[in-house]
Description:
The chain contains 15 helices and 19 strands. The protein is α/β, with parallel strands linked by helices.
Amino acid sequence: MRRIFSSKEIVLGVTGSIAAYKACEIASRLVEYGARVTPVLTASAVQLVGPATFEALTGNRAITRLFDPIQNPDIEHIAVATRAHLFLIAPATANILARAAHGLADDWLTTTLLATRAPVLFAPAMNANMYAHPATQANIATLRERGCHFVGPAAGRLACGAVGVGRMIDPATVVEAAAPLVSARRELAGRHVLITSGSNREPIDPVRFIGNRSSGRMGRALAFEALVRGARVTVVTGPADVAPPYGAEVVGIETAREMAEAVQSRLEHADIVIGAAAVADYRVESAASAKIKKSGAPVTLTLTENPDIIADAAARRRPGQVVVGFAAETERLLDHACEKLERKKLDLVVANAVGEEDSGFGSDTVRAAFVAPGRRIEELSVLTKAELAARLFDRIAELM
């Protein structure tokens, strides 16, 4: 995140929702990632959170009025609007959405929204009935047509005690949604990246399954990196410890055959296909229709091979399509990766060691190497999965 937000100018608009306190965490995260944050509080927001809090978190004066005495000539609505890389309105009430949609300019925030050419991201927060009201939905549609972006809202318990859609989405997700809007890397704009992620569950009976230890962290890192480089991203994921990043199309599956069908139906329109999932090599030939009860006798399971998803993608590729596989190995890492590359006719294989303390399933770091045709090998040091994803897309850019 730091490489994305570092030195970026972000205007954080805070409006009069009870969720205004969440903006404090957003400000803190952005500053932690190296952004320069200018907090702007509407008159209603000041009644809920203090400007001093945001000034302490950001190191910048909080703007609260259009005609505040100017302590710093730089803090002025046209200057801020011009240098901003992003306007982030969180929380965004129904009121601010209406005023922005209709071009009102009666306070500092709405005035600057008219003056800026930076991307604008709204994180709505309001009562569920207010959010569902045709007027609010029309305002959102108008703002989307003008190029504004939205993150959330989520469903859940609201401040009024009701349960419904209108809750501001969590601060970490807001920051994640902001990242592609300020990213300097846009080389994948207009490209579609298809990623498999997570594990598979092959049923033994309605209760039990054969699975593996994949956490989905590598697939998530790949999806996020593709998003910040401007791609449209589809993640076909089995059960995982982490969810794909905000902004990705998510296709949830359980079995390897379900994953294969999901990939095949989307393959034609993908420019880059990355098989990061820990696909189950085998399934039970005939899963029991009822729970298998203990009998004291051994139970024999007959296994049959599952389809090879990434090999099928490579065999069916169209010209210009890049297909990348992963080889998770516990021994003879490079030998097995080279064999996989040749047998499946892939453009690149990421060989990663599993079962080690600093590498493998559930870890945030990985010991890996890139293997290309002709047994060209680039061995990597231990990297975070985010760093590996960035290095991989650098290599994919070279291939394309």
